[in-house]
Amino acid sequence: xxxxxxxxRPAKTSRAVPAALWRSTIGKKVIMSITGLxxxxxxxxHMAGNIKxxxxxxxxxxxxxxxxxxxxxxxxxxxxxxLMRVLLLVAVVAHIVSAVQLTRRAVKDRPRSRTGKPRGGGxxxxxxxxGGVILFLFIIWxxxxxxxxTVNERAEVGNPYGNLVATFDTWYGNVIYIAAxxxxxxxxxxxxxxxxxxxxxxxxxxxxxxxxxxxxxxLVITVGFVAVPIGVMTGVVS
Amino acid sequence: MRLNxxxxxxxxxxxxxxxxEYRVDDVSPDMSFxxxxxxxxxxxxxxxxxxxxxxxDCREGICGMCSLTIDGEPHGPQRSTTxxxxxxxxxxDGDTITVEPWRAKAFPVVKDLVVDRSAFDDIIAxxxxxxxxTGSAPDAHATPVAKADADAAFENAACIGCGxxxxxxxNGSAMLFTAAxxxxxxxxxxxxxxxxxxxxxxVDTMDDAGFGGCTLTGECATACPKGIPLESISTLNREYLKxxxxxx
Lengths: 238, 248
Ligand code: HEM
Ligand code: SF4
Ligand code: FES
Description:
heterodimer, B: Ubiquitin-like (UB roll), Fumarate Reductase Iron-sulfur Protein, Chain B, domain 2, metal-binding (chain B), 2 iron, 2 sulfur cluster binding (chain B), 4Fe4S_Fe_S_CS (chain B), iron-sulfur (chain B), metal ion binding (chain B)
């Protein structure tokens, strides 16, 4: 008589949740969606702050000063700013490392079709991946331009308003900024909807709302940011 | 009608393949795509050539064996239709048709148009089962199933495991297939005992088999002959997240 009715399987090695998530393709997407949402939250606040340039030099500069003294005396000078910078750095690095690993996994050894026709779905993968690279380069340029003022030719320390106007007085400042924002808009149009699916909240009914909502949020963020260089170009801000 | 075919020929897994051109005369519009290939194969056999290998079984759209990429589209241009149910009346005299196997890293070509889909079997083996007591069949109404759950299970149970979703995906991802299997069984009361292990094990097996990650392009759901909805992937993600958090 058979004593065992099933073959013995090796006991499952259990892992801590973060390690298990990091190992799986779904887990990496979860990390991408959470870090992406953190960055979106930051962008909304950043955009709202930028809009203050339309209230004039004094208001904008005092807002920039407030950002540095926010939380005092509990936090040191620029303490809040540095907390945000660390959070964003962690988010950006985790987002990019996951994106690069998943992209390499998807394209490595992929057999090519011989029809000459590209595979479908290339639109999304292309705009997400190339848009991501554009955003990465832009983030570096943006920090060198308006934070460290390394590449900003007419910059003065302590005058964010003047530095901003100096950037958008150059044609390349406008081109780089607007191109990056278009890439951002496309990235968010798919990204916000995708994050809802990755986090498992997308259902047939809710997706009827998530799709247009993603487009709307992407549009608001893009337009809100683009308003600033347009303002400088048209002389509304000078 | 007459057709020009460009067909992928490959002698075996370790061989290099190439596109070979064939001409088929006397194609009837009532033939299915596979019957049209049968006609070509008969001719090749009579001429002493090696017939073109392709997978097929039921030829009525329910078994999931047929698997051709026709003009770049898995299962061809007809929506919600398997290759075996695609009829030649959708083509015109003189058309050139390109026929390739599924192209995915996890589906190596065995011969010509036949690919090895045993990675799907591994995914099924790792979680596509339920525990049921042996003995006489239970009464049909012994375990009530809510209508919405029954509908979700039915919709996802329609998956025939053909692999078109993987072939259509720019990342070679098996998320739609795995989602269909997990959602089908996790929606039902009978699937509850293994609910968490099922999703964790099936996703682990899917990753180990070398499928790519999902970027939600939606190509899978467009190519799927059984209309498995893209939302099933969201449900799979939800099940996976819940099970992961409880695994700690
Ligand atoms: C800095 C360089 C960046 C790179 C290289 C990058 C790359 C990517 C890639 C490849 C995807 C995956 C697309 C997919 O799987 O569907 C993605 C998704 C996403 N990205 Fe980015 N991205 C970057 C920056 C950003 C920024 C600045 C934000 C937000 C403000 C953002 C928000 C998102 C969101 C919300 C998703 C969706 C996550 C998901 O699919 O669940 N990304 N990114
Ligand atoms: S989900 Fe659709 S395309 Fe994928 S294996 Fe199942 S039936 Fe085929
Ligand atoms: S041969 Fe069975 S589904 Fe096509």
